[in-house]
Amino acid sequence: MSDLTQLTLTETISGLEKKDFSTEELNGAYLTRIKKLNPKLNSYLFVNEESNKIPAAIKDIISVKGMPLTCGSKILEGYIPPYNATVIKKLMANSVSVLGKTNLDEFAMGSSGENSAYEKARNPWDVSKVPGGSSSGSAVAVAADLCAFALGTDTGGSIRQPASLCGVVGLKPSYGRVSRYGAQSMASSLDQIGPITKTVADARLVLNWIEGADGKDNNAVPNPKSQIPNPKSIKGTKIGVPIEYFAKGLDQDVEEVINTALNKLKDLGAETVEVSLPHTQYSVATYYLLMASEVSSNLARYDGIRFGKDRSKFGPEAKRRIILGTFALSAGYFEDYFIKAAKVRTLIKQDFEKAFQKCDVIAGPVSPTVAWNLGEKISDPLTMYLSDIYTLSASLAGIPGLSVPCGFSAGLPVGLQLLGEYMDEETILSVGEIYQSATDWHKQKPGLN
Amino acid sequence: MDNQQSTTNKSWETVIGVEIHIETNTKTKMFCGCSADYFGAKPNTHTCPVCLGLPGALPFINQEAIEKCIKIGLALGCSISEHSLFERKNYFYPDLPKGYQISQYRWPLCTNGTIEIDGEYGKKTIRINRAHQEEDTGKLTHIGSETFIDFNRSGLPLVEVVTEADFRNSEEVRDYAKKLQQIIKSIGVSEANMEKGDMRLEANVSVRPQGQEDLAPYRVELKNINSFKFIGDAIDYEVERQIKLLEKGEKITQHTRGYNERKKETFLQREKEEANDYRYFPEPDLPPLSVAKEEVEKIRAGLAELPGKKIANLEKIGVSEKVAVIITASDQKFDIFQEAITKIDSAEIAPLATFFVNQGSKSQSAEELLELFKSVTQQKSTQIQDEGELTKIAKEVIGENEKVIADYKSGKLNAVQILIGQLMKKTQGKADPIKAKNILVKLLS
Question: Do B56 and A215 lie within an 8 Å CB cutoff?
Answer without folding.
Answer: no
